[in-house]
Amino acid sequence: MRNRLAIFGVVALLLTTNAFAAKFTYADGSILLSGDIVPGDYDRMLWLMSVNTEQYLRTNRIFLASDGGDVAEALKMAKLVNSLLATVWVSPRYGRCVSACFLIYVSGNSRVIEGHDTLGIHRPYLEDARLAALSPADARRTENMILKTARDYLEEHEVPNYLIEEMFRRASNEVYWLSFEDITQLGQYSRWFEQYLVAKCGYRKDDQDRESYMRLFACQDKATFPTARKVLRQAMELAAARKDKSPELEGIRGALLMQKMYEEGMARQARCAEDPTCPAHEQMACLQKHKNDGTECGLPPPP
User: Fold this and answer.
1) Among 121-125, 131-135, 149-153, 168-172, the range of highest mean pLDDT
2) Which residue, of 203, 220, 241, is where some domain finishes?
3) Among residues 165, 213, 166, 168, which one has the least CA distance to residue 188?
4) Which site from 47, 59, 100, 195 is most exposed, i.e. has the minimal number of CB atoms within 10 Å?
5) 237-244 own/partner pairs: CB under 8 Å, 24+ apart
């Protein structure tokens, strides 16, 4: 418990050390992304998911409130959000989602948007620092390549062609705000996920009452939880294997180590509960029976 609190303290301090980076916090039990997207923000987002995996997976939801930023970093974040089967949410309570943030929005297999003029698009771009470090020829080649990658990603995620053209024809300081009709064209769900919910959860578009929505959300959460847990663990392991020594990666490595220690402890407990020769057999069997409630087994309550 103390170790977890210590990690949270470090996260709270270091997730805001770069004044120009996006900020990641928890709001309404879900991750809130705000501020400009810059290189390194993928690691910061994954770090926050890692330090308390159970808290994140409880909702598997991300509020988007960013005016955009570096398109290459946004694409990395979008691919993770898509693989997690996360729900993305845009609400005027937190801010609007513009430019590169739109890439993360369309990556959500489940999407919720509130208010008017909260989802905007214009031509995506690379952060100035990335381009400034290149020669003119390399800058041109890199910019063209990343714009093609962004266009391909939008097409892959079924964004209507007219919106893609609208996005790429507008300069980075000229925003097109999506109308209700545009948002309807994008859909609340990706096509495959909508059909999956039809088959798995009995989803019907004409079921608009609160009770139907609650049943759908409960079924959706239950169906996606195992995949989200597996994908998050894989992302943590890939990040931990990198050679960088940034605070974010060190935090992910620490969170991964704690998860593995906990899993090993639970495995030992389960083995001991089945083995009468284990010195702590009776206590472990009691913990297994009472779902690890130590107070039922003569142990003090957790701190």
Assistant:
1) 149-153
2) 241
3) 213
4) 195
5) 239/43, 239/46
Looking at the structure, tell me whether residues 126 and 172 fall in a common domain: yes
Residue pair 122/98 in contact by the 8 Å Cβ criterion: yes
Q: Does residue 235 share a domain with residue 249?
A: no
pLDDT of 4-34, one tens digit each? 434 444 444 445 445 556 789 988 889 999 9
Cα 90 to Cα 102: distance, rounded to the nearest angstrom: 10
Q: How far apart are CA 228 and CA 56, in angstroms?
A: 10
The pTM (predicted TM-score) of the whole model is: 0.83
Q: How many domains does the chain have?
A: 2
Exposed, middle or buried by CB within 10 Å (0-12, 13-18, 19+), for 212?
middle
Phi-psi category of 233—alpha, beta or left, where left has phi over 0 and alpha has psi -120 to 50? Answer: alpha
DSSP H helical ranges for the chain:
2-14, 41-51, 53-59, 71-83, 100-107, 128-132, 136-156, 161-169, 180-186, 191-201, 210-241, 247-274, 281-289
- Can you name the residues that pair with 131 across neighbouring β-strands? none
Residues 241 and 206: their CA atoms lie apart, in Å, by 47
Q: Alpha-carbon Rg of the chain, whole angstroms? A: 22
Residue whose C-alpha is closest to residue 77's, from 36, 113, 115, 112: 36
Q: Could you report the per-residue pLDDT of 209-253, keeping only the tens digit for each?
A: 888 889 999 999 999 999 999 999 999 999 999 998 899 999 999
Q: Tell me: do 235 and 155 sit in the same domain.
A: yes
Angle at 297 between CA 296 and CA 298, to 5 degrees: 100
Could you list the residue range(s) of the whole structural domain that residue 38 is in? 2-241
β-bridge partners, 120? 98, 177
Token pair listed for 263: 């899993």
Q: What b/e readout covers 108-130, taking b as 16+ CB neighbours within 10 angstroms? A: bbbbebeeeebbbbbbbbbbeeb
